[in-house]
Design goal:
The protein is built from 6 helices and 2 strands. The chain is mainly alpha-helical. It has a single domain, classed as Arp2/3 complex 21 kDa subunit ARPC3.
């Protein structure tokens, strides 16, 4: 009799539940905790969906971070009527979650500094990724600059919320 079977099954079930939970939290935080700003480009939506995304990546790792970001925010785009953005969001925010988790897992040192570095890297991915997504969608190299401040604000606010708290979450996970 294989005694590892139940623990393997329970760890798979646990991973599915955690991934589903963070997809749902990311979707809900993006959909319901947001402010629409009257600025040009598509940077007019500031939301807190990056908060559960960063927690997922920093506490549970790169795979959970990628899944939560890609599916949570990608699903938001589909539900909210911005389906054209969904493939871009799936890749960009999935990459953000993956990289935040990867940095949090692999980089040694002071955890606050490492998590801040992870958030800064996610900021670069978001700004550059959505800039080029808007260039593709709008066919304009100037208009996407209007979205940059909103993207910076989104990630910065999430980082300010998550970095001081994530150590406590990790201890309880």
């Amino acid at each position: 009799m294989n005694t590892t079977f139940p623990s393997t099954e329970s760890s798979k079930t646990r991973a599915i539940v955690i991934n589903a939970l963070f997809i749902a939290l990311t979707l809900v935080a993006t959909m319901f905790i947001n402010i629409r700003l009257p600025i040009m480009g598509n940077g007019g939506l500031i939301h807190l969906g990056n908060v559960p995304l960063f927690i997922a990546a920093m506490v549970y790792g790169k795979k959970t971070g990628a899944i939560a970001g890609a599916f949570g925010m990608g699903l938001f785009d589909v539900i909210s009527g911005w389906a054209i953005w969904s493939p871009f969001t799936f890749v960009i925010v999935g990459a953000m979650g993956f990289v935040v988790g990867l940095i949090s897992e692999k980089v040694p040192g002071n955890r606050v500094v490492v998590h801040t570095l992870a958030v800064a890297t996610a900021l670069i991915i978001k700004v550059v990724g959505y800039y080029f997504a808007e260039v593709i969608l709008y066919g304009n190299w100037v208009q996407p600059f209007g979205s940059v401040p909103g993207n910076i604000l989104q990630v910065a606010v999430a980082g300010i919320i998550v970095v001081p708290l994530v150590g406590r979450f990790k201890k309880r996970a």
